[in-house]
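Case study: DNA2/NAM7 helicase-like C-terminal domain-containing protein.
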Amino acid sequence: GIAMFPSDLFYGGKLLSGVSAPERRPLAGFPWPREEFPVAFVPVQGNEVDDGVSKLNEAEAAAAYDAVEHLLKGGQCRISDIAVVTPYAAQARLIRRMLRQLTHSFDGYVEVSSVDGFQGREKEAVVFSAVRSNSYGSVGFVKDWRRVNVSFTRARRALIVIGNDQCLRRGDPDTWMPWLAWADAHGINMDKPGIPRGRYEPEQLRRVRGGTTAAEMLKDVLERQQAQLKTAEKQLETAARNAAGHIIGNAPEGEAALNSDGNPTTVAAGGAIGSETTLEQALANLETDNWDDDDSDDEEDNQASSQPTLSAVSSMNDLMTRTSQETDSDGPLDAWDL
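Here is what the predicted structure looks like once written out:
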């Protein structure tokens, strides 16, 4: 069901669902395209709208509201069992405001989160809004396979994906196009519910992604973190040398000093280091730098940043080592161990 596509595309067929067979039947209330299959794609031809540096899609927000309402009326999950996940902070804010009208009579609230804020957690039901909808097939960082993987592996019993299928197919042939082909082949596209269309070949999907394994995914993340740490260490050394040179008078105010690369940097008036990036800025960039051009720094989310801090690298090394051992043994991977 839910774990089938991520397992085939991202984990070489080795990902196992953490949900037992009796629990895999779709949650009541939502009009599932196939009554025995807990995944649905809801095609919405809405319009994406710029909201500052972020984007929103009112038609998809309305569809997400309807999906949550159906699930709650089904009575098989609590309000706290549902999450709405989207790549854009503006869309998260819009959906959150809309759901307040629905959930005021319930004890609790539906969590609405950015994809990055939801990393490492799971819910019984996840509703995903892709947001991007345009005639030229631009999907931005929605095509980041890591975000797709996070979104599609955090639902335990129900996954509802909302998006403009034409835009997603055109904009991302590596991840979204295969997923939509998978949805068509299993009859879970709600434009023609229950009608399988086309063929689904797991081996072909794995060839598209080059056989990416869980260990390789973690290795990619770890290498990026280590590169960021090396950059921060280099900037720390540069800042310390420049500061020391200024203190002992080797670089008077307004004159050029040399950084660790032998390139000139200016010491500004008042003793401030006039290099292009200060130590504080470098560390701040390391803490806040996210996948590509993510805009999901939502002030209402109260979620810890998903980008690792300096202290997180050792734990990532441990995780990568453990996962590599599991992968090398050709044993199955559990979705909730990642």
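For the exam, be able to explain this: Residues 203-215, 251-279, 296-338 have pLDDT under 50 and may be disordered.
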